[in-house]
Amino acid sequence: MFDERIALKIRLDQLADAEVRVMQEFKKEREVIFSRLQELDSVDEPDARSVATITTIGLPPRARRGRRSESLTELRKTAVVVLKEQNTPIRGIELQRFVEERTGKKIANMTTFMNGLERENERVRKLGRGLYMYEYDM
């Protein structure tokens, strides 16, 4: 009598055999690719150098649009100070309240303000919906 247990064991054996065959094919193909790369490296050494000199590295830095007001700089510095004081993530609305109390200035759009701060300071991170944190270990 042929039951499900025997069928599953047979299928496992088939999968193991197929896995071994596929791994052997990958190994053969990898060896072919490595040997071809070695051939190309030995033949085309000067061409590789010329390509490297032509290749550009990275994108040019984007020019800043407009100029930033001093009040925005003060708000951002205060926000970083508040984030450094907190050991745990802080909600954006709480951060906004602290910054506005300390500076006496209003933040019109907190999301835009924090997006700019994240671009300016790589240690300021948004963890989730409205949670921000200052990362010390980077």
Number of DSSP helices? 5
CATH topology of the largest domain: Arc Repressor Mutant, subunit A
Total of domains = 2
Helix content class = 55-70%
Shape: elongated
Q: Compute the gyration radius: what is it?
A: 29 Å
Tell me what portion of residues adopts beta-strand conformation: 5-15%
Mean pLDDT: 84
Note the main sheet: 3 strands, antiparallel
Examine the secondary-structure arrangement and name the CATH architecture of the largest domain.
Orthogonal Bundle
Strand order of the largest sheet: 1-3-2
* Spans where pLDDT lies below 50 across 5 or more residues: none
Q: Structural class, judged by helices and strands?
A: mainly alpha
CA(first)-CA(last) distance: 63 Å
Give the tally of β-strands: 3
* SSE series: HHHEHHEE
Structural commentary:
The structure is a single chain. With 138 residues, this protein is mostly helical. Helices cover 64% and strands 8% of the residues. It has two domains: 4-54; 70-134, Arc Repressor Mutant, subunit A. It has five helices and three strands. Strands 1-3-2 form a three-stranded antiparallel beta sheet. Helix 3 packs across helix 4 (92-103). It is elongated and about 80 Å long. The mean pLDDT is 84. This is Competence protein ComK. Pfam families: Rok_N, WHD_Rok. Residues 76-132 form the Repressor Rok winged helix domain.
